[in-house]
Amino acid sequence: EASRALVERFVQAMRTQDHAALLALFAKDAQWTADGGGKVRAAAKLLHGPRAIARLAASVWRLYLSHQTMEAVDVNGGPGLLLRDAGGVRAVMAFETDGVHIHAVYSVLNPDKLRGL
After folding, report:
1. Is 9 exposed, middle or buried (0-12, 13-18, 19+ CB in 10 A)?
2. In the predicted model, is pLDDT for residue 109 greater than 90?
3. Dihedral sign for Cα atoms in the order 92, 95, 99, 101
4. How many domains does the chain have?
């Protein structure tokens, strides 16, 4: 339950563009991996550390996520988000947390991997 609350705080921090709150959510060794499969725009490399991740999260919210709905879901037994717009599912995000900090974010944007969701 603590991990899910952490993900909710992550969404709220993105919505409000609260950079300090985003920084506080991530562990010092946090990573963000994005899989666009070369078919959609996604971060081209693995991001490391709270600063890089907070910058990405704020930018991604402004450019893309603010136009999508987010639904809290279980992904591989852990907390996650399902992102949709009028065209259907656009991404799935999975989080690794210890209930205090987010240690990893995995975002799948590759449409081939999202079929059937």
Report:
1. middle
2. no
3. negative
4. 1
Tell me the CB-side half-sphere exposure of residue 27, using CA atoms within 13 A.
Answer: 15
49-105 pLDDT, tens digit per residue, is 999 999 888 888 877 777 888 899 999 899 999 999 888 898 899 999 999 999 999
Q: What does pTM read for this prediction? A: 0.88
Q: Are strands 102-108 and 26-35 parallel, antiparallel or unpaired?
A: parallel
For 2, the 3-state DSSP assignment is: helix
CA dihedral sign, ordered 65, 71, 74, 75:
negative
Could you tell me the residue range of the domain that residue 110 belongs to?
Answer: 2-114
CATH code of residue 42:
3.10.450.50
